[in-house]
Structure formats: C-alpha cells, structure tokens
Description:
Blueprint: H1 6-33, H2 38-41, H3 54-63, H4 74-105, H5 111-120, H6 126-139, H7 146-150, H8 157-168, H9 172-180, H10 185-196, H11 198-213, H12 217-222, H13 231-239, H14 248-268, H15 270-278
Amino acid sequence: MVENRPFLTILSHVVVLIGVAIIAFPVWMTFVASTHSQQTMLQSPIPIWPGPHLIENYAKVLTDGYGRVGSTPVMMTLTNSLIMALGVALGKIAISIISAFAIVYFRFPGRMYFFWAIFVTLMLPVEVRIVPTYGVVASLGMLDSYSGLIIPLIASATATFLFRQFFLSVPDELTEAARVDGASPMRFFWDILLPMSRTSIAAMFVIQFIYGWNQYLWPLLITTKESYYTVVMTVSRQANVVDSVPSWNLLMAMAMLAMLPPVLVVVFMQRQFVRGLVETEK
C-alpha cells in the first residue's frame, strides 16, 4: 500500500513539472521563433513570446520553401515523408506479423534457426548494412523512387519478436477449437489472431511511423531529385548553409511543421498505444 504523504506528493508533482518544462521549452522557443521576422531573430535578446508573422512564415515555407532559388516547398516534402512513414510502418507490420505467425504456428525444418537469424540482425546497425543495401537498390533501379525509400526499411526483427511473443501467449485451446471447426490457417489468422492483435498493431504502428518519419541518412543517400526529398532532409539542408546566415524564422517554421504529424499520430493513438504496451488481450 502506498503511503499518503503530502510532502512526497508535492515533490513528485514538482519534479514532473520541471521535467515537462525542460522538454517543452525548446519546442516553445521553436514556435516563437517561427512567428517573428528574420531581423527580430538576429537581435538580442531573443523574444520569448509569439510575434505577428505566424501565418506569413508558415504560408511561405509551405508554398515556396526556404525562399532561396531551388528551395523545396515544405508541402511536397511533408507529402514525401508521409508516404515513406506510412509505407515503412504498414510494411513492417505486415511482414513481421506474417513472419511471426509462420514461426509460431507452422512446423518446418529450421524454424527456430530462421527466427534467430532474424533476431540476430538487431545487432547490425543501419550504418553497417547501408553500403550493400545501397548497392542492391541501385542495381534494381530504385534510386529516386518511393519504393527505394520504403522497401529496404520494412524488415523489422523487433516487430517480429514482439508479435511472436504475443502469439505464444494465445491459449492452445483456441487453436484447437479453430482446427476442430475446420478453419484454415489463414482463416484462423484473419478472423482470430488479427483482431486479438489490434492493440499490439496500433502500438507498433506508432513506433514504426515515427521511425520512418525521422529517417535522415537513408533518404539522403538514395535521393538526388528534389521531388523525393523528405522534410527531415530539407530542414537539415537549409540549416547547413555556408554562404549566408540561415533564415531562422523560416527554418523554425519548417521544424514545427516537421514535428506536427508524429505528434498528431501519438495524440490520436495514445490510448491504443498505451494499451498495446501494457496489456495482453486473450
């Protein structure tokens, strides 16, 4: 039983509020900077309250980009990032859940060998695999394409492991009942396992969507056409200018727009995400 101590309650709330303030303050300053003019942002001290240029700055980066010649409109890069993130998330879930289903419910030679071969890939960081992966993608002619952005990233050992552990927790009586009723393996998977896995799928979707949205190194490597740039790439490219001072107000507006879709996914799927992490449906 937890003791009711007012001092500890107040202290815990103070610690939480301090933590929230530390995390939220950079985001607040980013938003503030995106609402001012460039001249204001180059003056000291930097303002800590929003300015009058919010609509102007956001409309400019959405339609015209950074404002320099050859800059990419953020609306297009947001679309590219959304396509990539959705493709990576849905592809990882589809491949992982089918792989876990085959490993758990089918008996074939080398079943556990294949599972551990998948699991061992967790020890290989992306940087180790990126050169041979690039060679394969280039040889297949998938550079500067959505398939090149998505397909090399859709295999996931982590998701396969999590779905396997969930399937192992499903009672054997349920499998036997489905077999007695004459359900085929795919019917059992589609009508029973898939509905039971919906919270796990939701949690995995949130994690993998954010993973796909935040990708920087792989899109930077395989894309040379601006029509396939992602928003994370664009923000980084505009920040690393060498011939002039970055337009911090426009850059911060781009950063805020880049943060918005992952935040919305987490907010709208928060309940399913938490249930998928803490509950086991049977």
